[in-house]
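Response to reviewer comment R2.3. The reviewers asked that we include at least one raw input/output pair. We reproduce the pair for MoxR-like ATPase here without editing.
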Amino acid sequence: MAIDLPNEIDTMIKHKRPTDTDFDYLKTEGGYIPYDETILTDALVALAQGKNVLLKGPTGSGKTKLAETLANYMAQPVFSVNCSVDLDAESFLGFKTIKYDDNGQQQIDFVPGPLVQAMENGHILYIDEINMAKPETLPLINGALDYRRTVTNPLTNERIVAKEGFNVIAAINEGYIGTTRLNEALKNRFIVFDISYIGGEQLKTLIQSETALNDNTMIDRFIQLSSDLIEVAEQGKIAEDAASIRALIDACDLAAVIPAKRAIQRAIVDKLEDDREKEAVRNVADTLFE
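Raw output as returned:
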């Protein structure tokens, strides 16, 4: 579902798009369906103005899909970094390796990482789960995130200046095991967007367009299942993972072929570790499906 952007925003974005027509394939229908349409338009304004965007929300709420959709509207390829506690400078910047020239002589070669490639090409860098990275790693990219748009690569001592069009989109799940509180100096370099689970007609549109399920009665029951699971998750009785829209989509796909309760068991329940959480999800499903 494409969003009709206000003229002034559409003009801003077009001016920021690369002129290379090879990127036209990115400007497609579909993508993230927002529960609040202003999230998409406001994030596009921020990117068009050269600002960094931070997407904050629970797992499965569509943060990665929103990042892909923003890139589509901007007609920009994306370089991605998936953060973890093992993330180091090389994961962002690249690494040195040995290669051989035509005479068989060894040479030290540098293989650029996603940050360097995005900066040098003027493309988008997507940093997933940025608050899982070690606090000492992230300051390496501070210069790329502020007005300087530069970093000094400690592996090569090269000063890298971002090409026009370079943008950063990051995503976080707050409160998860393995995550840390995002440094305020780093957070201040972003425009922050709270991303919530979608529901109602938006979720119905997503299920109809992204899954094999076409039984409207069954779709309505899955929408109610999603709403009930989100409520139970907010009460702290189940993990947010159980209310993931991503897991719900998987369950809908399976339910097009197998019984709905079995689909929910495979796509949602079996992902959980706690027996009480599993039982809570089954109880919710029992109220909606035979």
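The chain is about 40% helix and 15% strand. Confidence is low (pLDDT under 50) at residues 20-30. Further pairs are available on request from the corresponding author.
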